[in-house]
Amino acid sequence: MTDETAPDDAPLLLRVEVPFCSFRPDASREYQDTHPLPPPATVYGMLLSLVGVPRERKEDHRGVRLALALEGEPERARVFRKLRRGKELVDLRPDYQDLLCGLTLWAYLETGDDAAPRPLTARVRDALHRPRSIRRSGGLSLGESSFLVDSVTDRATPPDRVTLVRPDPAGFHSLPVWVDHIDRGNTVRGRFLIEEGAAANLPACAVAIGGAA
């Protein structure tokens, strides 16, 4: 069975390459550091953009399950740039920002409680193998619009060992698995451990997007 003819609800393993990116923790203030990898909610947003789902329709695939891992360790850089500190364009001020350079991300996607007529797994396959069936505009970014994605493929094989993002109530990293941009009180966060492990264990690290990790 080829990727193109897989059932709509068949799991999907993606390799995503991003030349540079940054994922600011909520606690960051003047100096903008970064999480060591994108939060699940950020990757979900990128996948919605890939298939042409606007932000106001992101509930369509709530409940899909997602697991993340890094291949290698991205290099870090620090830039001095203007960052917005308010809602107006005049609210700009130069600050330092940490960047991840050369990010290679593995994303495992399974249907879970995605109740859409055509699940996200199927729509991502459509975008990769039948791109003319997708209506979208603009570049594909991971987080900020300037963090453009270099490639997305479901035809790659991960190395035997990767850096897993494993859900753990006692984990050090607090990452959003659902972001509500209107009411922050509805944002859902989970705790995670980041540790080396077998790529075969990636499905066991999946969390429900929109639910507790």
**Share of helix, binned:** 10-25%
By CATH, the topology is Alpha-Beta Plaits
% residues in beta strands? 25-35%
The CATH class is identified as: Alpha Beta
Q: Kindly give the count of domains.
A: 1
Number of helix segments? Answer: 2
Distance between the termini: 32 Å
Shape: globular
The total beta strand count reads 9
Rg result: 17 Å
Structural category: mainly beta
The biggest sheet, with number of strands, parallel, antiparallel or mixed sense and barrel status, is: 9 strands, antiparallel
CATH architecture grouping? 2-Layer Sandwich
Mean pLDDT: 90
Helix-strand topology string? EHEEEHEEEEE
Low-confidence stretches: none
